[in-house]
Amino acid sequence: MESLLLDPFEADFMQNAALAAILVGVLCGTVGCFVVMRGTALLAESVAHGVLPGVAAAVLLTAGTSGDPHKAAILCGALAGGVLTAAGSAMILRRTRLREDTATAVMFVFMLALGVVLISRVDGFAVDLTSFLFGDVLSVPDWEVALTAGLAAVVLVTLWALYRPFVLVSFDRRRAASLGVPVERTELALMVLLAVAVVVGFTVVGALLVLGLLIAPPAAAALLTKRLPSMMAVSALIAAASGPLGLLVSWHFEVAAGASIVLVALAAFAVIAVLRPVR
What we know:
The chain is an all-alpha fold. Helices cover 81% and strands 0% of the residues. The chain has helices spanning 2-6, 12-38, 41-61, 71-95, 100-120, 126-134, 142-161, 163-171, 173-178, 183-205, 210-224, 228-253, 257-275. Helix 2 (12-38) runs antiparallel to helix 10 and helix 2 packs antiparallel against helix 12 (228-253). It starts with a helix and ends with a helix. The model has no long low-confidence stretch (mean pLDDT 87).
């Protein structure tokens, strides 16, 4: 039994994959609590798809500079696309009287269509694009693990520093405004943190699956706890544990690693939902 659990992680690439998955799990599990609490899953999905035009634009701009597009440029492009999606959604909300889900959907459709148009201009990139859509955690290099750790630390420190304004804005925008909290800027900051979490997560599980880590662990934690700090801790723990466990599933059953990680997180939610006493 011990060999089944430990032997796969003797390989260096599995150690990097496990560490990256744990870091991403902690990040997405924590930030995702605000997504679940605010009911903004559509916004999270919009940001996740917003990285696609950024990735395609980075590839187009770096075409011909080397044999393959530089991963650092792709990460920068993805971050720009995610932040643009978040900022665009905030601007539409501020300048119109549309509902939040409608404004988010408008930006979602725009970024998705723009991504498809830009991707159609990228010659011979269809195969490589698969790793960005569905993740490539088994090929994460040392420098990317370090970058992931740095970005995760920045996001978590920012969440800690701005915890009270984020909570006030999430629960009651009017009360937050009456207490002097800059509501629009605080919401934009929260969207930017969500965009960073999505960009960090898409390198591990892919842009199409990162929503699973943002939703499933916080949803499971919400069934077990009543206070937000406890919810964030439990969610981070579930998401972090889903990484190594998903990698073990991927190793032994020879299936996609990113999808396995997300399925483990969803399985945790399903088990808790079934076994939790009805209240």
